[in-house]
Amino acid sequence: MSILLPLFPLDVVLLPGTPLPLHIFEPRYKEMISECLNRKKPFGVVRAKEEGVAEIGCTAEIVTVARKYPDGRMDIVTQGHERFEIMNLNQERSFLQAEVLYLQEEFAQVVKLHGEIMTLAGAEPEGASEIERSQISFHLVGALPLDLDFKQTLLGMKSEAERVQAVISYFEAILPNLRRAVHVRQRAGGNGHGH
């Protein structure tokens, strides 16, 4: 069950950690922001484009309500928090909502899988802090002797989110064979008495 994230399409690109003051005046957004405040939930800021909205957005946490007006308008200060990719748009409410995939979780997952591959290969896994997040897919794949077709496909992908997904799938596909190979090697490297 995916939780729908309310979306606020704006002519801005919100980045994680960046403040964004907003004046809320449209009825649908007054409704949306009131709900977010009541539930202490973030909303998603996505860049509005002529043909719809951008696929990648950033959640906005409401830091403070600077001012409330008698007619329900309000001035709020938000801060960018987590990047997400829109999977499906939902138009059942007066405001846009979406099923989203948070890119942070994938970062942790792909680093964990890479760490396991490095360990199985007898190399030292890297800490997540050492890795540049914006180029994570290239960084993790570059160090490994992987299939050239896969590397070429990765090079051609437009978004990092897409690349990280591909790397996760690829790592998950090769890990069982790697684990088996290492297990067999460990058993074969016994003391010659079959123990």
Structural account:
- The structure is a single chain.
- The protein is of the alpha+beta class and 195 residues long.
- Helices cover 39% and strands 30% of the residues.
- The chain is built from 5 helices and 7 strands.
- The chain has helices at residues 27-39, 103-120, 136-142, 148-156, 160-188, and strands at residues 4-10, 19-24, 43-49, 52-53, 56-68, 74-90, 97-102.
- A 5-stranded mixed barrel has the order 1-3-5-6-7.
- Strand 6 and strand 7 (97-102) form a beta hairpin.
- Helix 2 runs parallel beside helix 5 and helix 3 packs parallel to helix 5 (160-188).
- The longest helix is centred in the C-terminal third of the chain and has 29 residues, at 160-188.
- The mean pLDDT is 87.
How many individual helices?
5
End-to-end distance: 48 Å
The 3D shape can be described as: elongated
Share of helix, binned: 25-40%
The average pLDDT value, as a whole number, equals 87
Low-confidence stretches: none
Whole-number radius of gyration?
Answer: 22 Å
Strand order of the largest sheet: 1-3-5-6-7
Please tag this protein with its features.
195 residues, alpha+beta, elongated, 7 strands, 5 helices
